[in-house]
Amino acid sequence: xxxxxxxxxxxxxxxxxxxxxxxxxxxxxxxxxxxxxxxxxxxxxxxxxxxxxxxxxxxxxxxxxxxxxxxxxxxxxxxxxxxxxxxxxxxxxxxxxxxxxxxxxxxxxxxxxxxxxxxxxxxxxxxxxxxxxxxxxxxxxxxxxxxxxxxxxxxxxxxxxxxxxxxxxxxxxxxxxxxxxxxxxxxxxxxxxxxxxxxxxx
Length: 202
Description:
Layout: E1 2-4, E2 16-19, E3 26-31, H1 41-56, H2 59-72, H3 78-87, E4 89-92, H4 105-122, E5 126-132, H5 137-148, E6 150-154, E7 157-161, H6 164-167, E8 171-174, E9 177-181, H7 185-192, E10 197-201
Parallel strand pairs: 2-3
Antiparallel strand pairs: 1-2, 3-4, 5-9, 5-10, 6-7, 8-9
Helix pairs in contact: 1-2, 2-4
């Protein structure tokens, strides 16, 4: 199994975490102990992220672990994680970020990673975007189709083609009012600002 760490922390884009396999593009390889075969896929990924961040003491890896935990709502009992740290095999093409000199180093790395992860996760939160459409009916309809899509009938079947809001992971909550993930608001503004005024709340 291979996981692109950039999916959780953008600065790690292209860093491949390989779990129980070896590939030429693996930055980090984690071979889980045999007893971990009873775990589900999400638990294995979370465990591998923990082992990598714990062994390399890199706050960016700790951040990716926390982002994965929050997005996938996964957790493991502490005794499983401690046992895996002892039994697993970990290899990396990147050096350890810091040398562990006291029992508090991992806690410092973990909490720094969690703070960094919270900044990333805040971009997932939806915020309200209100569009003030143009007065011209033709321009107004063109903008509505761009944002919300349109219905198309083909051979007596009606299909709904999603608009920009749906493509950006948002939804319509009222006329000209949408919920959109914070990270995607700039993409909407880029498309709409020249056609209408946009108010962002949150």
